[in-house]
């Protein structure tokens, strides 16, 4: 549910790694003048983690520290949060949750080009096959704010940015 005191909406852009979250979020921030927060970068910059996961070659984020870091900014509004997980963010933070989805073959190639191998590669492709992030979003947020959208091509990203920019420009806070 939108929070009545925010003048601008908050958007969560989520999806399996490699679906284009950061690319789309950056373009959307430019188109709407909203602030883009890449949670992965924030975790690295502010050490909001509990160490390094050798198997998956990534930081183990500390969800409480991340939420504490974002709290004031999110209450103010006008933020695009970009992260592959979504179930730990407070529901009240977001007015729209966008789940990017990518064809498995396209995703596999993107992740392989990034150097993903072994368990990290297969785990992420399986996550997309089973629509894990979409299910997580649907179970964590109000049904009417969760949208899934295709993100296979540059044209898809351009269309998604245009549609979301239109949504942002017409967004009105609702009373509680």
From TrEMBL:
An individual GO BP term: ribosomal small subunit biogenesis
Main localisation: cytoplasm
Catalysed reactions, as listed in the record: ATP + H2O = ADP + phosphate + H(+); AMP + ATP = 2 ADP
GO cellular component terms, A-Z: cytoplasm; nucleus
Stretch list, region NMPbind: 38-61
Positions of region (LID): 113-123
Protein residues bound to ATP: 18, 20-23, 114
EC nos: 2.7.4.3
Top class in the EC scheme: transferase
Entry keyword annotation includes Transferase: yes
Keywords: ATP-binding, Cytoplasm, Kinase, Nucleotide-binding, Nucleus, Ribosome biogenesis, rRNA processing, Transferase
Compartments (UniProt record): Cytoplasm; Nucleus
GO MF: AMP kinase activity; ATP binding; ATP hydrolysis activity
Family: Belongs to the adenylate kinase family. AK6 subfamily.
PANTHER family per UniProt: ADENYLATE KINASE ISOENZYME 6, POS9-ACTIVATING FACTOR FAP7-RELATED
UniProt subunit comment: Interacts with small ribosomal subunit protein uS11. Not a structural component of 43S pre-ribosomes, but transiently interacts with them by binding to uS11.
Function per UniProt: Broad-specificity nucleoside monophosphate (NMP) kinase that catalyzes the reversible transfer of the terminal phosphate group between nucleoside triphosphates and monophosphates. Has also ATPase activity. Involved in the late cytoplasmic maturation steps of the 40S ribosomal particles, specifically 18S rRNA maturation. While NMP activity is not required for ribosome maturation, ATPase activity is. Associates transiently with small ribosomal subunit protein uS11. ATP hydrolysis breaks the interaction with uS11.
Protein name: Adenylate kinase isoenzyme 6 homolog
UniProt organism field: Dillenia turbinata
């Amino acid at each position: 549910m939108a929070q009545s005191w925010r003048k601008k909406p908050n958007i969560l852009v989520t999806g399996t790694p490699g679906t284009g979250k950061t690319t789309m979020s950056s373009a959307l921030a430019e188109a709407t003048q909203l602030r883009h927060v890449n949670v992965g970068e924030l975790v690295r910059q502010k050490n909001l983690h509990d160490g390094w996961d050798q198997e998956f070659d990534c930081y183990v984020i500390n969800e409480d520290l991340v939420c504490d870091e974002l709290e004031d900014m999110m209450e103010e509004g006008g933020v695009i949060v970009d992260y592959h997980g979504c179930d730990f963010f407070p529901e009240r933070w977001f007015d729209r949750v966008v789940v990017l989805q990518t064809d498995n073959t396209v995703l596999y190639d993107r992740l392989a080009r990034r150097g993903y191998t072994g368990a990290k590669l297969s785990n992420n492709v399986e996550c997309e096959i089973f629509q894990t992030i979409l299910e997580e979003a649907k179970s964590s947020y109000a049904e009417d704010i969760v949208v899934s959208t295709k993100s296979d091509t540059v044209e898809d990203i351009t269309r998604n940015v245009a549609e979301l920019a239109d949504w942002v420009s017409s967004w009105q806070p609702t009373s509680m």
